[in-house]
Amino acid sequence: MSEVFKGSFTQQEAIPEAGIEAALAVMRHGRLHRYNTVAGELSETALLEQEFAASVGAPYCLAVASGGYAMATALRAVGVKPGDHVLSNAFTLAPVPGAIAAVGAVPVFVGVTDALTIDLDDLESKTDRARVLLLSHMRGHICDMERLMRLCDTAGITVIEDCAHTMGAAWKGVPSGRSGAVGCYSCQTYKHVNSGEGGFLVTGDAEIAARAVMMSGSYMLYERHLAAPPKEAFETIRYETPNISGRMDNLRAAILRPQVADLATQCARWNERYYRLEEGLRGTPGLKVIDRPEEETIVGSSIQFLLLDWQAEAVREVIARCGARGVELKWFGAPEPVAFTSRYDSWRYAPSAPMPDSDRILAGVVDMRVPLTFSLEDCDLIARIIRSEVGAVWQDAA
Fold it and tell me: Is the same domain home to 254 and 140?
């Protein structure tokens, strides 16, 4: 009889007890707004910013309402104007080009390699088309950041990193989000810390940080931040920077502080599961495992593999057969958006031209969440199911 996985791919672990207690304390005193404090009190949000900044080695941090808001704010803070072109990955999720469109700018898509990272050769050919790159570390895959930064520095391109899937990850020991001018992170439920929604923006640039704080809705209360630039940085920009409210509140911050403190432990747990799945999938006929470079410190909260050069119907059959056995796979090659999966040519507000090399990769990308509610034995079972169904369809097609 065929094995069936009966677990959930969307069930998260409970919020830590320390976070629950801190959230209850906030609800009991009622001061949810980040600037609503009593004499001598430091807000949960200000403390969270200070702690997250320290965790990634950033001078400045701003906690905001979502990762998408962080990206749009970063784009505005570095000077992107309506009509400007902004480079970004062809392989990403909709909030990334959405952030570009939200500021009235135009995405210019850069290709993807079979390592699922931005194609640096394609990027080099397009460096004359824009002055900003919104780099998506899509599904946790980090490119050669040294080469990327050399290319962008030479061309005068400002790099903003979308680290929604790489909080806790690094390239050659440099935390994700600290190579470019700005790093943006998500605290949405399926990310590495969970407040339902929320995000962070980090930077080492005082002017960018001050503009972001003003945009987030600080009014003239910016001195209540613990991870913002000194008040001198605000002297001019406070009069010319619009308020585009997107603050994080103290309730979310209270939930997040214990999770940020425990992030390294959680990342290690994700990686145990990721590498257990990878081991079970490696060597499956017709399936390409994504080899991770030694320079990359990963956080394996999802796993991808390639069914490269398969017919679309065969990929659909694998997805359906695994689904019938309880294993939820997502396919980035579908011609129409499904759930959170979409392609660069799905976003009709963003102009695009065919990218044959990238289209070939995207047609084979299969994705799976790896929640921490999975046991290692669950990972073994899931790998056996995928291996069995991929093998069966591969054999039928041979």
Answer: yes
Q: What is the largest CA-CA distance in the chain?
A: 73
Pick from 296, 300, 324, 298: which is nearest to 374 by CA? 300
> What spatial distance separates the first Cα and last Cα of the chain, rounded to whole Å?
25
What pLDDT does residue 113 have?
A: 98
Task: Report d(CA 200, CA 281) in Å as an integer.
Answer: 34
DSSP string, 160-217: EEE-TTTTT-EETTEETTSSSSEEEEE-STTSSS-SSS-EEEEES-HHHHHHHHHHHT
Whether 31 and 151 map to the same domain: the answer is: yes
Q: 3-state class of 117 per DSSP?
A: coil
Phi and psi angles of residue 71, each rounded to the nearest 5 degrees, phi first: -65, -45
Q: CATH number for the domain including 228?
A: 3.40.640.10
Tell me: do 314 and 244 sit in the same domain: no
Number of structural domains (the chain) is 2
Helix (H, G, I), strand (E, B) or coil at 331: strand
Structure tokens at 16: 């830590």
d(Cα 156, Cα 132) in Å, to the nearest integer? 8
CA–CA separation, 134 and 123 (whole Å): 12
Query: Are residues 256 and 294 both part of a single domain?
Result: no
* Whether residues 167 and 249 fall in one domain: yes
pTM of the model: 0.97
Give the domain extent around 34.
17-261
Query: Is there a domain that residue 12 lies in?
Result: no
Which pLDDT score, from 0 to 100, does residue 398 have?
Answer: 65
pLDDT reported for residue 127:
96
Structure letter (DSSP) for residue 227: S
Mean pLDDT for back-to-back runs of 10 residues, the chain (398 residues): 91 97 98 97 98 98 98 98 98 96 97 98 97 98 98 98 98 98 97 98 98 97 97 96 97 98 98 98 97 98 98 97 98 88 90 93 97 98 98 86
**Cα separation of 23 and 37, whole Å?**
15
Q: Token pair of 198, please?
A: 């929320």
